[in-house]
Every structure is written in C-alpha cells, then in structure tokens.
Amino acid sequence: MGSEKKPWEFPKVVLPQHTDHAGVMWHGSYLNFLEEGRIDALNKVGLSYSKLSKKGYEIPVISVKLRYKISFIHGDKVLLTSQFKLENKIRLNCKTLFLKSNGDIGAEAEIALVLVRKTNESIKLVRKLPVQIRNTLSMLEEGPKI
Questions:
Q1: What is the mean pLDDT of residues 14-39?
Q2: What CATH number is given to the structural domain containing 67?
Q3: How far apart are alpha carbons 110 and 87 in whole angstroms?
Q4: Rounded to an integer, what distance in angstroms lies between the CA atom of residue 59 and that of residue 43?
C-alpha cells in the first residue's frame, strides 16, 4: 500500500457568474474556487477562518501558479482535489487539481500561503506557529479521515 494521502475534495458546478461571455469558465473563477476549497478544508479540521481572523491572524496567498489544460463550461461539474504540505515550519503549500466529471484534469494549481499576525499598526509574518494552529495545519496536511 502506498503512502499517498487522501486529498481534500471540494465539488463545484460552473454557474453563469463563473464564465466569460462565451460560457467558458473565467480565469479569475479558478482563484475563487481555490479559496473556497481551502476554507472548506480548514473548517473540516476545526479551524474556522473567521475565528482565526477575529484572533488577529490571516493566511494570505504569497504565490499562485495555475496551468489550464481543458476548459470548463457553464454547467460542468468540477471536483477540486487538494493536498497540503507545511514547509520550513511557516509556509503552507497547496496543490490542487480541477477534475472534470470524467476524471480528466482541467487545470492544476500550486498555491503558497503563510500565517500573518495583523494589528492596527502592522501585518507581520508569524515565524513560530502557535501550537494549536500548527496542530491544525498538520491535520490539514494528513488529509481527510474516512
């Protein structure tokens, strides 16, 4: 048996507001789907982004790499499968596939995020993750439990 961890899954349907005038999924919609998928996975490991934010923390994206392979059109079902990895104790990397209903890869994304502490005066990178947040991100890295 391999050591592949089960990815987080997040289903979506391409709606009219996700498309351009030709009915093809607009490039910016991919970023919205990625954000929704990350927030959903965080919720599933018990970390509400809104509660995190109220405590003065944010998890901003610091880099995005998107490769479009096959277009999605209005009405298509999309399954996002995401895997997370905490690197250098401060960077959270997320690899996501946008899968068509037949299993073909429509797009691939690589996102890097970091935890920051926000105050009225500044936004600073958190170099030592609080234990509870580190434990929660480790659960995210492990993938969903069946």
A1: 96
A2: 3.10.129.10
A3: 14
A4: 14
The string of pLDDT tens digits covering residues 44-71 is 999 999 999 999 999 999 999 999 999 9
What is the total count of domains within the chain? Answer: 1
Residue 143 near residue 6 (C-beta atoms within 8 A): yes
Angle between helices 131-142 and 27-44 (to 10 degrees): 110
**Single-letter residue type at 44:** K
- The tens digit of pLDDT for each residue in 79-88 reads 999 999 999 8
Give Cα separations from 40 to 49, 71, 88, 102, 140 (angstroms).
Answer: 9, 24, 24, 23, 11
Could you list the residue range(s) of the whole structural domain that residue 88 is in? 8-142
